[in-house]
Amino acid sequence: MGIRDDAAEIRARGWRTLAALHGMIDTALEKALQAEFKLSVVEYTVLEALSRQDGWHMRMQQLARAAALSSSATTRLVSRLEDRGLLGRFLCADDRRGIYTELTPEGRDLLTAARPVHDAALEATLAEATEVPELAPLVGSLADLHPVHANA
Questions:
Q1: Gap between the Cα atoms of 98 and 91, Å rounded
Q2: 58, 49 contact by CB (below 8 A)
C-alpha cells in the first residue's frame, strides 16, 4: 500500500468513526424525543434552528440548509409542524416570492420543554461513547470545536 493509499484509508477510517458516533447520537436523541414529545430529531433541529434566529423566523431555503434537507423534504416537514401548530408560514414583505417559516408560541414552548431531554440524551450518549476506544478521541475533540470560555 502506497502513501496515497494509506492516506485514503486513514480518511475512510475517520469517516467511519464519525458515522458511528453520529449514528449512536442520532438513535439516542430520536428515542428520547419521540418518547417524551413525539418529536423527531430533524423536527427538533428545525425548531432549534428557528429559535436561534432574530425574530424566530427563517426563509425556507435557509431552513433547508440548517436541517440538511432538500427543499421538498423541508416543505413536507414544515407542513407537518404547521399542522401541529408549532410553525407558521408567511410571505416575505420585501420579496413576495420568499416564504418565511416562524415558530409559534406552541413551538417555542415545546422546544423549551424538549431541550433538557435532548441535552441529557446527548450528554449521556457522549459519555457512553467515551467508553468505546475508537470513539473516545473523537468525543474528546468535540470540546475543542467550540471551547467554553469562563467570561462568556
A1: 6
A2: yes
Between the CA of residue 102 and those of 51, 68, 120, 141, what are the distances in Å? 9, 18, 26, 34
Query: What does the pLDDT look like over 91-119, one tens digit per residue?
Result: 877 766 678 899 999 999 999 999 999 99
Question: Contact 60/71 with Cβ under 8 angstroms?
Answer: yes
Cα 132 to chain centroid, rounded: 23
Output 53-60 pairs: Cβ under 8 A, ≥24 positions apart: 55/102, 56/102, 56/103, 56/108, 57/100, 57/101, 57/102, 57/103, 58/100, 58/101, 59/92, 59/98, 59/99, 59/100, 59/101, 60/89, 60/99, 60/100, 60/101
Percent of the chain with pLDDT over 90: 64
Q: How far, in Å, are 19, 104, 116 from residue 50 at the CA level?
A: 26, 10, 17
Cell numbers describing residue 13: 477510517
* Amino acid identity at 96: R
Say which residue the cell 480518511 belongs to.
11
- Reading the block at residue 16, the C-alpha cell is 467511519
Q: What is the pTM of this model?
A: 0.84
